[in-house]
C-alpha cells in the first residue's frame, strides 16, 4: 500500500502531450512543405505627362537633361544606339557628376516593357530620381 | 480528503490547445490575403536595384497589364473607359482628404510598351502624374 501511494504522488497532474505533439508536428510539416519564399517587389517612380498636354515635344536637350530611347532592338542615349552595358557605364559616369540630371525616357510602341524597367533600374542604381517617360 | 490532494490542478487543457491551434491556423492562412489581389499570371521584369516598398498606402491603386494587354484591377478585367472612371473616382476621393492617389502599374515584362502606355495615358489623363512601375527585386524561388 505504501509503495502504491508513493507512485501516485510522483505523477500528480500529468497531462498526456503525445497527441498534441503529433498534431504540432503535422502542422509544422504542412507549413514547411506548402510555404514558398516570397518575391520581393520594388516600385519605381516615374513622371508621366498628360497625353493632351499642350507640350507635345519634350524641351530641347541640355546638359541637365538626358534622353534615353528604348526601342525594340535596344537602347539609344542622346540618339546614339548603345548596348545595355554602355548605357550603364554612361549613366554611372553622368550620375557621378550630378544627381540633378533629368532623365527623359522615350519608349517606342513595340519596345518590350522589360526595356523600360531595365532603364528605370539603372537610374535607381545610380540614384537618378528625376525620371519622365514619354511614349512614341 | 487525501484523494483530492493527490490530484492538484490537473485541468483539462485540450480545449485550450484546440483553440490556440485554430487561432494559429487562422493567422497563417490570412497573413497573405492582402497580396491575393495581385495577378500571379503576370511575370514582372527584374529590377535588382529598385528600393523595396515598405509603406502601403490604403489609397494605392494597382493596375495589372498582362502580356496580351488586358488591363485589370484586383483580377477584374476593365475596359479603358472603366479604368478611367475608377481612377477619376479615386482621385476625387483622395482630394477630399487632400492626398494623392498612388498608382502602381504591374505590367508583364513581355508586354509591349504600346500595351502599358494605355494604362499610363489613362492615369495621366485622370490627373495622376506620378506613377510607379512595379518590378521584381528578388525572385523568391
TL;DR of this structure?
Helices cover 39% and strands 25% of the residues of chain A.
Describe this protein's structure:
- The complex is a heterodimer of chains A (136) and B (141).
- Chain A contains 4 helices and 6 strands, in the order ααββββαβαβ.
- With 136 residues, chain A is an alpha/beta fold.
- Chain A has a domain at 65-135: Nucleotidyltransferase, domain 5, CATH 3.30.420.270.
- In chain A, strand 5 (102-107), helix 4 and strand 6 form a beta-alpha-beta unit.
- Chain A is elongated and about 85 Å long.
- Chain A starts with a helix and ends with a strand.
- With 141 residues, chain B is α/β, with parallel strands linked by helices.
- Chain B has 2 domains: 2-34, no CATH class; 38-133, Nucleotidyltransferase, domain 5, CATH 3.30.420.270.
- Helix content of chain B is 37%, strand content 18%.
- In chain B, strands 3-2-1-4-5 form a 5-stranded mixed beta sheet, with helices on one face.
- In chain B, strand 2 (71-73) and strand 3 form a beta hairpin.
- In chain B, helix 3 (80-96) crosses helix 4 (113-125).
- Chain B is elongated, with a radius of gyration of 24 Å.
- At the A-B interface, helix 2, strand 1 and helix 4 of A face helix 2, helix 4 and strand 5 of B.
